[in-house]
Amino acid sequence: MTDASPIADVVARMRQRLDALPADLAARRHFLGTYLRTTQAVGRAIDQARFEDPEWVEIWDVRFAELYLQAHDADLASRTAGGAVGVPRPWRLAFDASPDLPALGHVLLGINAHVNYDLPQALLAVISDDDFLDPRLMARRRRDHERIDAVLAERVAAEDGELAATGPRSLLDHVLTPLNRLASQRFLRESRQKVWHNTVELQQARVDGCYEKRLGELEVLSAAKVADLLRPGQVLLRLAVTGFGVTLPPP
């Protein structure tokens, strides 16, 4: 990842947001810091030729990050203007979560909003309707989509260490750490499969002229999942029962 690469540029933009966070939004550092390091890891994986189409993955990853940055910036602007205009509902719930939540809670809220709601949109931004008619190309796109899981899974232990450094953990948290790491990797696989399904559903809606309606349905489902994560209790244990992703039903 060179200093002039698109991913290096988006990492710099994330770092600028991280450095500029006001004191009352310090809890937002947990997700943003995790996301910044993960984006750097994707950039290294691209440099290591771990994808079949690295140029496409880079464009896609940057488009994905930009959706988060847009939500983040819109939320900051809305706090000044006095209303959450332009902030998608999943992000609004994640951003408004109590700062007293554990660091892991803030990270999970951000991941959930970003993966469930933003990722299908980012994929559609870099896969045209004509691309969907090419089975070989789509198979390649899906394989690269799934290869991201390996990159993210490699970050789980390191990110767990980063979160542990943010404050004391309960005895139960220490006992659950190995389970949390295994569960996190399973959630990545499960949510990525659902994201691909939702991307296909949204693409068909784009062809049929009802994209905004279906995207609105995805926004509602994603917000409901974030709201579920905000309920008291061990979040990862509850996710083991309910699952991480959301699935758009047939239109």
Please describe what this structure looks like.
- The protein is mainly α and 251 residues long.
- The protein has 9 helices and no strands.
- The longest helix is centred in the last third of the chain and has 38 residues.
- It is globular, with a radius of gyration of 18 Å.
- The chain starts with 5 loop residues before the first helix and ends in a 9-residue tail after the last helix.
Shape: globular
How many H/I helical runs?
A: 9
Instruction: Tell me the major beta sheet.
Output: none
Q: Which quaternary structure do these chains form?
A: single chain
Number of strands: 0
Distance between the termini: 41 Å
> Which structural class fits the helix and strand makeup?
mainly alpha
N-to-C series of helices and strands: HHHHHHHHH
Strand content: under 5%
Give the arrangement of secondary structure elements:
Elements: H1 6-20, H2 29-47, H3 54-81, H4 89-95, H5 103-126, H6 135-164, H7 171-208, H8 211-229, H9 235-242
Helix pairs in contact: 1-2, 1-3, 2-3, 2-5, 2-6, 3-5, 4-5, 4-8, 5-7, 5-8, 6-7, 7-8, 7-9
